[in-house]
Amino acid sequence: RVLITGGLGQLGVGLAKLLRKRFGKNNVILSDIRKPADNVFYSGPFIFADILDYKNLREIVVNNRITWLFHYSALLSAVGEANVPLARAVNITGLHNILDIAAEHNLRLFVPSTIGAFGPTSPRDPTPDLCIQRPRTIYGVSKVHAELMGEYYHCRYGLDFRCLRYPGIISADSQPGGGTTDYAVQIFHDAIKTGKFKCYLRPDTRLPMMYIDDCLKATLEVMDAPAEALTMRTYNISAMSFTPEELAQEVQKYVPELQMTYNVDQVRQAIADSWPMNFDDSNARRDWGWKHDYDLPELVTTMFSYLGSDSRIAQAN
Ligand code: VAH
């Protein structure tokens, strides 16, 4: 049985859909500290759980005979900077709870890391798997901690810990949770709704990005990989890198009237400027045959095929 923490976030619902196809609807349990919309209950089991409640988590794992755990509970980069004490509690103490339970009950544990686990002193173009990691956000610090602790528990206690560093993830049917890359999702909705988009990053800010289907595919592949194939426990995965300007040009192929304006948010610009520009994921491609399917044109085509590209403006005129 599978448990997904932080299951109501941008990635959890899509991951549950994929896993339920594979393992059966009732063998994949979503949990989160938020009350879900009714339809979430219809698509499979949901349990309200606080990642800081160790005893309750342990009961959930034992009573539901959990064998795989995907740990998505976290405060992302921008929201974490706005509430460091909560980010430290959820991203670090919450992670400790999960590590102890996973080691105690011999779970296969997936914890996502991020391009945000690197900082201004890391090589940025490209950023390899192994290099200096001195991130400047509580989110990044907590994710480096998760990588180091997961690898320690793997070496010391034999925990089957697996970790992928995600780029900014773009999805059509779910909202990102307060990160720095969220603009790349919002632009699609605003282009269709109003034909206007105000971007909080400079036009030339290059960041690694990935379509959600590639992200979920990589996550399942690394969890399925035979242990002997994994020369590492934490891998970069990459698909594309783009700037707001490049994304806008691609979006304007569908919404020509899109007006892009820039209203830079210094906090998120500083975070983005400290992150990788391009990701080197050669280890993942070598060890378990990782390869992405969606480049920028395919991403934009897929997003508009999902959201519909006949902008309200065109309809209104
Ligand atoms: C964020 N979307 O912006 C998340 C992610 C790679 C970025 O970690 O914080």
TrEMBL record:
GO terms for molecular function: L-threonine 3-dehydrogenase activity. Residues 2-237 form the NAD-dependent epimerase/dehydratase domain. It is an enzyme of class 1 (oxidoreductase). Pathway: Amino-acid degradation; L-threonine degradation via oxydo-reductase pathway; glycine from L-threonine: step 1/2. One of its GO terms (biological process) is L-threonine catabolic process. It catalyses: L-threonine + NAD(+) = (2S)-2-amino-3-oxobutanoate + NADH + H(+). Transmembrane segments: none annotated. Its EC number is 1.1.1.103. It comes from the Eukaryota. Catalyzes the NAD(+)-dependent oxidation of L-threonine to 2-amino-3-ketobutyrate, mediating L-threonine catabolism. Belongs to the NAD(P)-dependent epimerase/dehydratase family. This is L-threonine 3-dehydrogenase, mitochondrial. The chain holds residues 57 to 373 of 373 of the full protein.
